[in-house]
Design goal:
The chain has about 130 residues and is mainly α. The chain has a domain of about 70 residues.
């Protein structure tokens, strides 16, 4: 098994460079399954949103596609499904959802934050 980085995962969703997109897709097929870390997934979603202006609906489709794909061995897949649900129904970013869920799964009562928006979600508490 091999791991792929953010640039490889991005090329599966954005064909900015057709040659790199083809190589990334071929690599996934050749090394099925490939490992995707939580950091790579977070960075990919952030890049799709900020650089490529993906809407929340488009991000939801990308995340769901990745989580359902059998050709990916994903770090913390179960936690990511919970974070995905929170992201779908909440108002905070996917990375924040992951931070909250993983903290909870490791026995934390909550994740302390100065982010007022994040503090409205179930896994966070505003530090005052």
């Amino acid at each position: 098994m091999i791991a792929i980085d953010t640039n490889h995962l991005l090329r599966l969703f954005v064909e900015k460079d057709h040659i790199q997109s083809h190589k990334a897709k071929k690599l996934v097929v050749q090394h099925n399954p490939v490992f995707i870390s939580v950091i790579v997934l977070c960075e990919t979603m952030w890049t799709l949103e900020t650089r490529y202006h993906f809407t929340k609906k488009e991000l939801i489709l990308c995340i769901e596609t990745i989580l359902k794909a059998q050709q990916f061995n994903i770090e913390h897949r179960e936690a990511l499904w919970v974070a995905f649900s929170d992201f779908q129904h909440g108002a905070i970013g996917f990375a924040d959802c992951i931070i909250g869920v993983i903290g909870k799964q490791h026995g934390c009562d909550f994740t302390a934050t100065f982010d007022k928006k994040a503090a409205k979600s179930r896994h966070f508490k505003l530090t005052s």
